[in-house]
């Protein structure tokens, strides 16, 4: 019985978009389940997929909270010119 955990950021891709839609979540579940069937032969009815949306303030990158990491990275890109 495979259990797949998918974590996606809740920050959205535009100011109006705040989270992954139900339709997108359904596509992720179907796609991951199909992949496990195709690659490992795991039946769809024995595959569990958990999708968790993570708020921006609850994750880090490079040892920093993500907003700070992005600020530092943006500053380095500007100074490279």
UniProtKB/TrEMBL annotation:
It comes from the Bacteria. SUPFAM superfamilies: Tautomerase/MIF. InterPro entries: 4-OT-like_dom, Tautomerase/MIF_sf. Residues 2-66 form the 4-oxalocrotonate tautomerase-like domain. Keywords: Isomerase. PANTHER family: 2-HYDROXYMUCONATE TAUTOMERASE (PTHR35530:SF1), TAUTOMERASE-RELATED (PTHR35530). Belongs to the 4-oxalocrotonate tautomerase family. This is 4-oxalocrotonate tautomerase family protein.
